[in-house]
Automatic annotation (TrEMBL):
CDD domains: Transaldolase_FSA (cd00956)
This protein's encoding gene: fsa
Taxonomic placement: Bacteria, Bacillati, Bacillota, Clostridia, Thermoanaerobacterales
Organism, as annotated: Ammonifex thiophilus
Protein name according to UniProt: Probable transaldolase
Gene3D superfamilies listed in its UniProt record: Aldolase class I
Family of this protein: Belongs to the transaldolase family. Type 3B subfamily.
EC number per UniProt: 2.2.1.2
Length: 221
């Protein structure tokens, strides 16, 4: 399973990219607001210098015409972008046109199997089921990922599933088990995934034992 970073903060992307685990990046208007960056093209250029994989950039328009225009502009930057299109009737119209033009799309705000299925049929490159937001309203988000993975595999859709709205490390593990192609992970969750208390205790114990050994060897000499 690939791991994307779900952030528009370049510093976070730089740090995680050094760990060799980042296959792409997803942004959205809220993440750009959190990063305090309205200069979207400049942000995407900075990210592209750090990460090879696709960078998702969301449209603001709500009409198919507007979305298509925005998507073509984003694609004209000549970077490895995927245009995030909201899961609406207008969005599906836009995805149909864009997929025929070879512009990558990421259909976002997917909350049901029927939405994911339609997005794949319209030609989406990626679909993003929002796990955490479903869990928030007492629907098991991971069931959606599992169902979509089964259906896409059964009918040979090339659309990749991005498990989005990830809240904790277990979501990432469960997304992998459920057959997501990708999990897009906030930096804080990725940092939590690195850690285990037994690793820290283990390192401390090895260093203490080594120090004891070398101190004894010195005093015996
Ligand atoms: C990524 O593509 C989504 O926009 C993001 O994961 C949404 O996360 P949230 O539900 O925490 O805002």
């Amino acid at each position: 399973m690939k791991i994307f970073l779900d952030t528009a903060k370049v510093e976070e992307i730089k740090r995680a990219a050094e760990w060799g685990v980042v296959d792409g990046v997803t942004t959205n208007p809220s993440l750009l607001a959190r990063a305090g960056r309205a200069d979207v093209e400049a942000v995407v250029r900075e990210i592209a210098s750090l990460v090879d994989g696709p960078i998702s950039v969301e449209v603001i328009s709500t009409t198919a015409e507007g979305m298509i225009e925005e998507a073509r502009r984003i694609a004209s930057w000549g970077l490895n972008t995927a245009v995030k299109i909201p899961m609406t009737e207008e969005g599906l119209k836009a995805v149909r046109v864009l997929s025929r033009e070879g512009i990558k799309t990421n259909v976002t705000l997917v909350f049901s199997v029927s939405q994911g299925l339609l997005a794949a049929k319209a030609g989406a490159t990626f679909v993003s089921p929002f796990i955490g937001r479903l869990d928030d309203v007492s629907h098991e988000g991971m069931t959606l990922v599992r169902d979509l993975a089964g259906i896409f595999s059964r009918y040979g859709f090339s659309t990749e599933i991005i498990a989005a709205s990830i809240r904790h490390p277990l979501h990432v593990v469960e997304a992998a088990r459920a057959g997501a192609h990708i999990a897009t992970v906030p930096f804080g969750v990725l940092a939590q995934m690195v850690k285990h208390p037994l690793t820290d205790v283990g390192i401390q114990r090895f260093l203490e034992d080594w120090n004891r050994l070398t101190t004894e060897a010195l005093s015996a000499a």
